[in-house]
Specification:
Two copies of one chain form a homodimer. By secondary structure, chain A is an alpha/beta fold. Chain A has a single domain, classed as Dihydrofolate Reductase, subunit A. In chain A, about 20% of the residues lie in helices and about 30% in strands. Chain A has five helices and eleven strands; from the N terminus they run E-E-H-H-E-H-E-E-H-E-H-E-E-E-E-E. Chain A has helices at about 30, 50-55, 65-75, 105-115, 125-135; strands at about 10-15, 20, 60-65, 85-90, 100, 120-125, 140-145, 145-150, 155, 165-170, 180-185. In chain A, strands 5-4-3-6-1-7-11-10 form an eight-stranded mixed beta sheet. In chain A, a hairpin with a 5-residue loop joins strand 10 and strand 11. The first copy, chain A, starts with 7 loop residues before the first strand and ends with a strand. Chains A and B meet through strand 7, strand 8, strand 10 and strand 11 of A and strand 7, strand 8, strand 10 and strand 11 of B.
């Protein structure tokens, strides 16, 4: 907890309005290919929130869990060509030289330090929760999708203390998303 | 489900960013009396979302559960002087003539019809979930508070089908709240 980091931990994730990031089977089609409902938003754009195009180029390292890694593999083209990718998994074999496999949080932190990480994209529900509980997240961007799923994988999990946030920006988009970026207050 | 209503069901609620509306013991002080963190927002106001001052006067009836009712009693002054209040409870005694106690959802719907309800404020996590599952909610306004609680009572619950929403408006306020109003798509 008192570890001095040289890097900034960031979250950038889409969630349903009821706080789910995937269906129970991991499906995110409701986010990437939403139902063809007309007029998903009658609101207009407002402030400047982080978008993928402003967020992703600033990132030099990613940390994700095995579930997120295997999801990314199904996308076809590897989207992280010029980023270093650390995958947290107790079981994954280290046979993909595009990634660095670590077994636990301490190994992940050690690897980030060794690599000289600066801007770290922390992705995947369980890894976000792990990093949040270890006070390793500085900024959280959430896109709230205009849908209720009713069950799925939770974005956030148990915390034994409140985490106070500061709203940095909020933008609505024509597809009905509300994108908000928060700083973690310390 | 095919019941024809003369009234509009509405939700207007504050939730923590991780989707909780209260702590496990029902406490909402984190919302009503938030931690004195400076600069809860550096975002500016944007579009016109429903505020309490624009929402509450349009309401003629409220439906809430026993938990919410008992919470309101602790506020001191009764805040619903000119509204009809229906409390859904299997146990509450009908000895408060400011409210109408009903035992189940069917009784609540019957009472709203009999009273000629038009604009119904559906309040409390369990009652919101009950009304949502019965397709009795037309509009949902949520204020996302800039805090993670880590555990509490969930705003939303299990649904056996997606509920598609349309973003009507979104406003950020100086205390870091993101207020969004959605229409339920049919």
């Amino acid at each position: 907890m008192t570890h001095t980091r040289g890097w900034t931990g960031r979250v950038f994730i889409g969630a349903s309005l009821d706080g789910f990031i995937a269906r129970p089977d991991g499906d995110i089609g409701w986010l990437t290919d939403p139902a063809p409902v007309p007029h998903r938003a009658t609101a207009t754009n407002s402030a400047e929130a982080l978008s993928w195009d402003s967020f992703f180029p600033m990132i030099d390292h990613l940390v994700m869990g095995r579930g997120t890694y295997e999801k990314v593999l199904t996308f076809g083209a590897w989207p992280y060509a010029h980023k270093r990718v650390i995958v947290l998994s107790t079981t994954l074999r280290a046979d993909d030289d595009r990634i660095t496999v670590v077994r636990d949080l301490d190994e992940a932190i050690t690897a980030l330090d060794r690599f000289g990480a600066r801007q770290v994209y922390v992705d995947g529900g369980k890894v976000i929760q792990t990093f949040l509980r270890a006070d390793l997240i500085d900024e959280i961007s959430i896109g709230w999708a205009p849908v209720l799923l009713g069950h799925g994988l939770p974005l956030f999990g148990f915390l034994d203390h409140d985490v106070q946030l500061r709203l940095l920006s909020s933008t609505t988009s024509g597809n009905g998303m509300v994108n908000a970026t928060y700083a973690v207050h310390r």
